[in-house]
Specification:
mainly alpha; Bacteriocin As-48, Chain A; three-stranded antiparallel sheet; 5 helices; globular; DC-UbP/UBTD2_N; UBTD1/2; Ubiquitin domain-containing protein 1; DC-UbP/UBTD2_N_sf
Length: 114
Amino acid sequence: MGCSGSSRAKANDSAKKIRKPKPWKHTEPITRTQLMQMRDEFWDTAPHYGGRKEIWDALRAATEADLTLAQAIVDSAGVIIQSADLTICYDERGAKYELPKYVLSEPTNLIRDS
C-alpha cells in the first residue's frame, strides 16, 4: 500500500519540477535596460494584484536564481506550481500568481544598449 502511494507522490513531484521558459519574442526589439525597467515595474506593483507579499518575494528570488535554487525557494515557500515555467503558481491558500515571460527570461530579440 505504501509503495503505490510513494509512486504517485514521485510522479506528482516530477510534474512540479521547474524548467526554463520557452524562447519568446517581444513585440519590438528592446534593450537590456528596458527589460530591467519592465521587470522592476512588475515587481514593484505585483503585490497589488493580490496574494501575499512573501510569496511575491519568493517568486522574485526564484526567477533570479538558477533552476536548482529556484526549485528550493518555491518548495520552501509552499508555492504550488501549475506551469513548470512559473508563469502560473498558487500559494497554499489558493491565491493565484501570474508571472509574465519577461520576468522569467530574456527575449530572443534583445538588443545592446546604445
